[in-house]
Structures are given as structure tokens and as C-alpha cells.
Design a protein that fits this description.
heterodimer; A: alpha+beta; 2 domains; nine-stranded mixed sheet; 11 helices; 18% strand; elongated; B: alpha/beta; Rossmann fold; four-stranded antiparallel sheet
Chain lengths: 389, 231
């Protein structure tokens, strides 16, 4: 208690120097929390978007289906099992049929995945309601990336070619009835979405599907020839990307912290050097060296406390504002291969804030303590006279 | 106890290493100090006055010999015990006042009592009393930079005396003061010596201080040359 009282008094007495140090350290607090919040928000958003646009509440795959091996698509299909009918009818499960094909935008040939999905599904955010009966062509929808890469617009007609269940090639014109914007490239790039029934007809696979998408919270039903894939598999790649992004975040975090600690360390070294006379006097008046070391350590550590208060004063309004309004991401992120929403909404968890405060306090205390150890080697008789050691 | 021996110094020697050689600052010092003495260790610069005072004050330890203060052997004290001794029983007055610049007068004088863990009420009472002794009751809120040299030294005296220690060590207390302030300081310390029977030991070469001493111990080249009662 005495050390805290004396330290606080000394800190306030140091005036501008204290506040400048505290301000620098507060910037470290705010930047670390902000950056971590952005990453957390980005990551949560990416997971959420993936769930909303691609994987739903989980998937049930045909046993032969491997999304990374197009050669499996030819055989990875089967009729919708009777056991799935109840969930299907209640809208808690939707089938998707997948096949490889080609399409010919502006006379060029492009490989593409043709995916058929129920136009009345509401599990994924895909605007399947846009599928309407078109007499002149098969309705299709594509993502904005697909549209941009192939210079397609809504209303355009494109020829697609596919191979049906009997191995026969066939072709037809499709009409782009909807171009949707999504942050999930996996439902956009090189994919054309068609009404399920239409694709089943094209492939001569009536009532068949390659995989099923479950609604959130739905329990998968067991059926022979099909197996369930949970988030642990479906989000594994995303989790790995997030993990790697976090490493970068941690590096930045660490650099920020080191810079702030350098400021505190330098301040402590300078303070001890400048206040040798005071240290000698403290010892002469009856403080033990340990008490003096403790005093300087607490003084340094209290910068962390002052910085936390400062950071709270300006950080809370700033970060709260951004959490509500989001941070606009630059256009053209896709060009760099970065998938992301137009706006990122940072997420500042209690664990992040408390963890950051604790981490900064601990590191501040350590870098305050280390230079204070020099006091143990000081000669008080020389220090009292102001003789520099 | 009247005239009890507070400090006993026997065959005290102090060496300092200087490269391969060593410098002997104090050579075979034998002295005793009784309660209520107003003594001074007098000598030119480099005679060992400050060294002797530092050892008496347990800020330094003897190389050879013994020194007992209030029954405690200085040479065998741990750092913690030495700090305890200084905290409870010894007051220091320094040549350059050594006031804490960030504390005001009250807080500077209060500092030793904080270390003694005295209650806030008792501290306040003691500090105001000490400031009254030195005539600075109106400067309670002033900072050291707002004080004159004489006022600063009086604050230093108040700080040394606030815990009413049996021993006060004053190292060149008038070195940075003019004649008028020097006399004022010395008169204050003389008054406190009479009132509280505090033993004052000075290290000085100032004639103004020597005038007030009741006992003059002359130190030359680390040796006691003479030890005479004055007045």
C-alpha cells in the first residue's frame, strides 16, 4: 500500500512525462484491441457467411462425393433417401446436385460446375427465388466474380455443355436471371446455379442429389450411401486460414507491445539514473533496497494503469462507434484474392479486453522491475551526494 | 537514562579498494557518544568525516573494528536490520537538503512516519509539531522549489526530528547556506538538542558550526587528532 501511495504521488509529480508515457502505452492498448477485434470480427463474419451461403447447418454427402475431385461428380449422386423426406418436406434439408460442365461466354470455353438447388429453399442465402420459368432458356444465377471474370450481365444468354447420366454430351442455352453478391468465393467462382429439377432433367437423374444441406440445428439422419459432414470438416480450411491470420495478428500485437514496453523501460532507466539522490535519501531515511525496488517497479507498472484508463476514455467511444458502423473494406479486395464482406464489424470480446489489459500490465511490471534491480547494486553513500553511478 | 552511551566505536578502520591498492579512510577510531551530546567531527576535506558519519548511520559498514549504536553491532547488521535502525533511531540532515521535489513540505516531513506505519492522525500531529519547531507552519503546502536554502534545511531538520530519534547525524548542514541562515539553523538544532536530549553529531569544517559545538573531535587523515569539550 505504501509503495502504491508513494508511486502514485511520484507519478503525478513527474507531470507531463507521466502522461506522455501513459498516452503512448494507451495507444498500444487501443491498437492491440482494435486490431484483434477487426480480425475476430472478420473471422466470425467469414464463418457466418460460409455457413449462410455454403454449408448451412452441416451437409450430408454421397459416399463417393469429393468436392476436390471433379472425377467423382459423375458417380456421386443417388435418389433422395426416404429417411430424408420428412426434413426435406419441412424445409430443414435441401438437396444439391453437382456436375462438371463447360460454358461458352463470348465464344470462349470455360470449365464450370453446374449446381442444381431447390428454388424454394431458404437454408442458404442464395437468391433461389429468382428462378422463374423462362420459356426461352434455362434460368441460371451466378456470383459477381463469375460475372466479372466472364463479362456477363443479367439477361445474357450463354451456352452450357454437360454430360448426362448415360455419358452423352448435351448442350443448352441458359439465361442469367440473377447475379448475386457474396463474400464466399466457393459459391461464386466457376459455378452456375440452376433450378434442381431443371438440372436433374438435363442430367437424366430425376429425384437425385449429390449432397444435402441441413438447416441450422437440425440433426442428421443416417442413411446408407450417405455420410454426414459437420463443421469440423466443412470449416476446417476456414479455421486453418483464420489460424494463420491470427499468427500475423499476434506478430503485430507483439511488435506493438514491444514498442510500448521499450518506452516504459527507457523511462525507468532514465528515472533511476536521474533519481539516484532520491534513492540514496530513501535508503538513509529507512527504506530497504527491496522497498525502493518495489517503489520503482510499482511506479512503472502504474503507467499501465493510467494508460488503461486513458485508453478506456478515448478507446471505448471510438471502438464502439466502429463496432456499430463497421469498417468499409477497400474495393477490389477480390482482385487480390481476399474474400471479405463490404464492411467488417469488429468484435471486442470480454476475454480480449481483459486479456490485453492483463498482458500489458504484466509486461509493464516486468520491464519496470528489470531496471530497478540496479538499485540493489547502488551505494547509498554515493547516491546521497548525487554522485552518479 | 541520563548520560548513557548511545554510540561506542572501537578500533574502527575503513578501507576502500582503489584498483590493486586500497585507501584507508579511517584509521583506528575510538570514540563514544552519550545521550544529549552536541558534538562535531571536524576536519578538512578528505579527512574521513562523512565516512565516519555514514558508518555511524549504518549506511556503510566498517572494514575492521566495532561500532555499536543503541546496543546494535553495525558490522553484523543485515540490510533490513540496518534500515530498521535508521528508520526508528537515526535522523539524517544532508548538505544539499535532499528533499523530495515532488512532495510538498508536509509530505517531505511525513515521509519517515509513513515508513514507521504511523496512523494518519498521529502523522499529521507529529508533522505539524515538527514544522512548528522549525518555524515553518505556514509553508505546509509549499514545494521545495518554492523554499529558500534556509527554509529547505529547516524542513530537512523537521524531517530528521519528526520521529524524535535519539541520534541525528548532520553532514555539512550549513555548507550551502549564508551566515544568517546558518546561525538560524544551528540555533534551531541547539534548541531541539536541549528540549529532546537528541544526540547531534555533525560532520563539518565550518567555523560557524564549531561555535555551537559542545564537543569537537578533530579528524585528520582518518585519525582522531583531538577530542575536546567546548564551552
Amino acid at each position: 500500500m505504501l509503495a502504491i501511495k508513494l508511486a502514485f504521488k511520484n507519478l503525478l509529480g513527474a507531470g507531463l512525462r507521466t502522461w506522455l508515457n501513459a498516452f503512448v502505452l494507451s495507444i498500444a492498448y487501443v491498437v492491440i484491441i482494435w486490431h484483434s477485434g477487426i480480425l475476430e470480427g472478420w473471422n466470425r463474419q467469414a464463418r457466418r457467411d460460409m455457413i449462410d451461403w455454403q454449408i448451412g447447418g452441416g451437409q450430408i454427402w454421397h459416399n463417393d462425393y469429393d468436392p476436390y475431385d471433379p472425377f467423382t461428380f459423375q458417380d456421386a449422386h443417388a435418389p433422395v433417401p426416404k429417411k430424408f423426406q420428412e426434413q426435406f418436406k419441412s424445409g430443414h434439408l435441401t438437396p444439391v446436385l453437382v456436375t462438371s460442365g463447360s460454358f461458352y461466354p463470348e465464344g470462349r470455353i470455360q470449365s464450370v460446375l453446374l449446381k442444381g438447388i431447390d428454388s424454394e429453399q431458404s437454408i442458404l442465402k442464395l437468391p433461389t427465388g429468382s428462378f422463374q420459368k423462362h420459356e426461352d432458356a434455362i434460368p441460371a444465377m451466378i456470383g459477381t466474380r463469375m460475372a466479372k471474370n466472364n463479362r456477363l450481365r443479367e439477361g445474357d444468354y450463354v451456352t452450357v455443355r454437360w454430360r448426362d447420366a448415360h455419358g452423352t454430351f448435351d448442350a443448352a442455352e441458359i439465361k442469367i436471371v440473377r447475379i448475386f453478391k457474396t463474400s464466399v468465393p466457393a459459391v461464386d467462382n466457376s459455378q452456375i446455379w440452376l433450378p434442381l429439377e431443371q438440372l436433374q432433367q438435363m442430367l437424366q437423374m430425376p429425384g437425385e442429389a449429390t449432397y444435402f444441406i441441413l438447416a441450422s440445428g437440425q440433426q442428421p439422419v443416417e442413411a446408407g450411401g450417405w455420410h454426414h459432414q459437420g463443421y469440423d470438416v466443412l470449416l476446417a480450411e476456414m479455421d486453418e486460414i483464420i489460424r494463420r491470420k491470427s499468427i500475423g495478428g499476434t506478430i503485430l500485437y507483439t511488435i506493438m507491445l514491444l514498442l510500448a514496453m521499450l518506452a516504459i523501460f527507457d523511462t525507468q532507466v532514465f528515472a533511476i539514473f536521474r533519481r539516484q539522490k532520491e534513492i540514496g535519501t530513501d535508503i538513509a531515511l529507512g527504506m530497504t533496497r527491496s522497498q525502493v525496488i518495489g517503489l520503482f517497479t510499482v511506479e512503472g507498472a502504474m503507467h499501465g494503469v493510467l494508460a488503461a484508463i486513458m485508453a478506456a476514455l478515448y478507446g471505448i467511444p471510438l471502438l464502439s462507434l466502429q463496432a456499430v458502423h463497421g469498417m468499409a473494406m477497400p474495393e477490389g479486395m477480390d482482385d487480390y484474392g481476399l474474400a471479405g464482406a463490404e464492411k467488417i464489424f469488429p468484435v471486442y470480446t470480454t476475454a480480449l479486453i481483459i486479456g490485453t489489459v492483463i498482458l500489458v500490465m504484466i509486461t509493464t511490471t516486468i520491464v519496470s522491475y528489470l531496471p530497478s534491480l540496479k538499485i540493489a547494486k547502488m551505494k547509498p553513500t554515493d547516491a546521497i551526494r548525487g554522485k552518479l553511478q | 537514562m541520563e548520560n548513557s552511551e548511545l554510540i561506542t566505536i572501537q578500533n574502527l578502520v575503513k578501507h576502500y579498494p582503489m584498483g590493486k591498492n586500497r585507501f584507508t579512510a579511517l584509521k583506528d577510531i575510538n570514540l563514544t557518544f552519550k545521550k544529549g551530546e552536541f558534538s562535531g567531527v571536524v576536519g578538512p576535506s578528505g579527512s574521513g568525516k562523512t565516512t565516519l558519519l555514514n558508518i555511524i548511520g549504518s549506511l556503510d559498514s566498517p572494514s575492521e573494528g566495532h561500532i555499536r549504536i543503541l546496543g546494535k553491532e553495525i558490522g553484523s547488521l543485515s540490510n533490513k536490520s540496518a534500515a530498521h535502525l535508521r528508520n526508528h533511531y537515526i535522523g539524517f540532515i544532508f548538505q544539499t537538503y535532499n528533499l523530495m521535489p515532488v512532495y510538498n513540505v508536509f509530505e517531505n516531513v511525513e515521509f519517515p512516519l509513513l515508513l514507521l506505519k504511523t496512523s494518519a492522525k498521529e502523522r499529521r500531529q507529529a508533522v505539524l509539531e515538527a514544522l512548528e519547531w522549525v518555524g515553518l507552519s505556514d509553508k505546509v503546502k509549499s514545494r521545495p522549489k518554492q523554499l529558500s536554502g534556509g527554509e529547505s534545511q529547516r524542513v530537512s531538520i523537521a524531517r530528521a526530528m519528526v520521529k524524535k530519534p535519539p541520534v541525528v547525524l548532520a553532514d555539512e548542514p550549513t555548507a550551502n547556506l549564508d551566515a544568517e541562515n546558518s546561525h538560524h539553523i544551528l540555533q534551531t538544532m541547539e534548541k531541539l538538542n536541549r528540549e529532546f536530549k537528541t544526540t547531534f553529531i555533525f560532520a563539518t569544517h565550518d567555523d560557524k558550526v564549531i561555535q555551537y559545538l559542545k564537543r569537537k573531535i578533530s579528524l585528520v587523515d582518518g585519525k582522531v587528532q583531538s577530542d575536546e569539550r567546548l564551552n
